[in-house]
Amino acid sequence: MAEPAEPTEPAETPAQRQHAAREEYPAYPVGLRLAGRRVVVLGGGQVAQRRLPALVAAGAEITLISPSVTPSVEAMAEAGQITWDRRRYREGDIAGAWYALVSTSDPIANETASAEADRTKTWCVRSDDAEAATAWTPATGRSEGVTVAVLTGRDPRRSAAVRDAIVEGLRDGSLAAPHSRDRAPFVALVGGGPGDPDLITVRGRRLLAEADVVIADRLGPRDLLDELPPHVEVIDAAKIPYGRFMAQEAINNALVEHAKAGRSVVRLKGGDPFVFGRGMEEAQALAEAGVACTVVPGISSSISVPAAAGIPVTHRGVAHEFTVVSGHVAPDDPRSLVDWEALAKLTGTLVILMGVDKIGAIAETLVAHGKAPDTPLALVQEGTTAAQRRVDATLATVAETVRARDVRPPAVIVIGDVVAEGPRK
Known about the structure:
Elements: H1 14-24, E1 38-42, H2 46-57, E2 61-65, H3 71-78, E3 83-85, E4 99-102, H4 107-119, E5 123-126, E6 139-143, E7 146-150, H5 156-172, E8 187-191, H6 202-209, E9 213-216, E10 233-236, H7 243-260, E11 265-269, H8 279-288, E12 294-296, H9 301-308, E13 322-326, H10 340-345, E14 349-353, H11 359-368, E15 376-381, E16 389-394, H12 398-405, E17 411-415
Parallel strand pairs: 1-2, 1-4, 2-3, 4-5, 8-11, 8-12, 9-10, 9-11, 13-14
Antiparallel strand pairs: 6-7, 14-17, 15-16, 15-17
Helix pairs in contact: 7-8
């Protein structure tokens, strides 16, 4: 009696073998240069709306085929960025395309178009079935000429998270990516903010990461200097020789000298370069020497330091204006350009920078011109840093309070009723 035949596995179809091969091998990453080349997009919904801007930016000649589109996609068609055929997909639409995006709500149309793309050897992305597609769209981001594209297979959220982390690191300078080929040197006057290194602007931090030379103020965010690569030359502007009077001229000369030597130079300043930072003097010196520079605004300590101490410089029903004044010279000094009598008549907030050692004379002058002696006042020392402290007083008591509490520069002085608003820190 014959033995029963062993059951056999059904033969693997070509499609199954192809699917298994796709499972075994990772996608090959490549950048497509689509400028002037035909791209076909099927479907005008949310998927197309998200993908089209990048295709437009790549210079592709885009034909979109769909009976209806979102308002944003329609606006692209009206602007001439894409050609919109108001109909459904038909066999032959993929012909001549270098790349296709299939994103209709019709599964049969998607399958048919995908099969056509396969026959014509057109790379095709499918929004409804990634496994059936011949191409995948990576999570993409851009920062200063760098394109980051991330693929993690079936986990698009992880792709986006990795993309975001890399792009953010490039933008804020925390991810150092030095140029290996020649690049144009630059000079930048960068406002570093009030002291906390996290409060420098994204652009400022990126330029700092690309610098060859950094000329730094003592009031700049010093912690950022520790993050610089070893090859970066750091010049402490507070220690530049020639004495106090000539210090600014020496800084100007250093900027010009290093710029003309072909180095990328960052002048790192506290606060904002143009708020008592002498940034315009440096910009003028560079311009006179024929050196172009970029000015990167910074968060001014005149606003940020009071805010960090819980003081709003304006507040509804309390102050409708604020005035920022330099207190580096006394009110009776012939060099003073401040109209203290006019300031005493204002009802808003008065913010004084560089005025700790002159605050006694300033308070006396304001009171002499009519400001109430009991006007509240706060001194915020080392604002936004770990050493921040707030000392409260009035115009009548501030001189003695500064002596008794040993308040030292740098400190921002806020005068006005807003001092009484909000929590005291």
